[in-house]
From TrEMBL:
Record organism: Apiospora kogelbergensis
GO cellular component, as recorded: transferase complex
InterPro entries linked to this entry: Isoprenoid_synthase_dom_sf, Polyprenyl_synt, Polyprenyl_synt_CS
PROSITE patterns associated with the record: POLYPRENYL_SYNTHASE_1, POLYPRENYL_SYNTHASE_2
UniProt xrefs under Pfam families: polyprenyl_synt
Classification of source organism: Eukaryota, Fungi, Dikarya, Ascomycota, Pezizomycotina
UniProt keyword Kinase, yes or no: yes
Keyword Flavoprotein appears in the UniProt entry: no
Keywords for this protein: Isoprene biosynthesis, Kinase, Magnesium, Metal-binding, Transferase
Example of a GO biological process term: ubiquinone biosynthetic process
Name this protein carries in UniProt: Histidine kinase 3
Sequence similarity: Belongs to the FPP/GGPP synthase family.
Molecular-function GO term, any one: kinase activity
Amino acid sequence: MDEMDKLDQMDDLDEMDEMPAEHLRTITTETESLTRSDEIAVGHLHTLVEEIESLAGDVNQLSLARHSLSSTATRQKGEVDIDPLRIVAKEMDSLTDNINQLLVSEHPSLNHAATYYTKAEGKRMRPMIVFLMSIATALCPKAPWTYDLTEKQINSSIAPIDVIKDGNPSTSLISNFSSPPDSAEPGPGVLPSQRRVAEITELIHTASLLHDDVIDHSISRRGSPSGNIEFGNKVAVLAGDFLLGRASVALVRIRNAEVAELFATVLANLVEGEFMQMKNTIDDEQVPQWSEAAFSYYIEKTYLKTASLISKSCRAAALLSRASATIVSAAYAYGKYLGLAFQLVDDLLDYTRSNEELGKPAGADLELGLATAPLLFAWETHPELGALIGRKFAQEGDVARAREVVGQSDGVEKTRALAKEYCERAIAALDTFPKSDAKDGLVKMAMMTLHRKK
């Protein structure tokens, strides 16, 4: 091979050496370009994600604001289109049977008297509220808890059976309550302990009706002769005591100290409220003068006699749901304001409805010497009512004159306005609850309370 051929061969080899290097540079350049493109793309992606997150936050805030505005508008218009009874129909269907299971006695006459009011079913508002509150709080944030009670524990005694000696023929002298049939098992969101709270609430309320009818010399209840008329005062009082006794046993078996304390104070509150009602007004003068204190006295009495049971049963339901302290307090507030509103409406219906519409004597409060909200509001602008209140409308013509003055005043309208304010407070207390049918049911219960006719 001559020198020229060797040089040509070397040039070819150099070109071959340069080709991979050039190719490598091309690949490197392309890679760097792609990397820069990826970085740009990733940058755009991060920017897009941030924008989406920001937008999502705005949308979430907008959604919350829209829901809040919608809820407010709905509340103002009274357009919560839901049937509370439908939500808790299963629990309500078995309520009377479950209560009667708690009341079985070996004495037939006591059985009859004890179940007289439970069989003549009334509004059943209180247990319905407990059921709704149980379901609504089941969705709330939970507080620490140790265990949930079983159906068997709820129906079992704590003390030895031979010590209790509870003569209940349905259990062959065994002090355990009969378990409900399978069809009466609690519905979704309602624990056995919460169902028992609903039953206890109705037992205490029914016992208070038996006792109140004796104190007030009532002649009818729920369209039938009142317990004191049907059985006499002694049996009516004893029947009420029996209901409270059975409620106490059921309460202890829930095995929750705060729940037991709540209902124990309810019983004391009922008695305290009755004593306040006997006095009628804070002013001991023979001719009392209107004052803010007189109205505050009435509101305190109303809480003790009516709102205490509703508010504390709501709190008990929330406690047994393991709800947070905030939710438990909100449940109590809802029950308190709803209870006050309920009694205010009850008091104004006494002035605006007939015996047939109410299912009990209309105008009974004045006949009993009681000064309720419509009359107290009227008293502020009609001082002459002070003398009538002082003698508890005992003179001939006092009742008629009092009704006439209330009719001429804005007492009924002011009472309705105050009831509306309390209903709004009850609904506002539910703002911390998550959205659910049960929550809407509680809202609807407040609206129904304001617009009820009996």
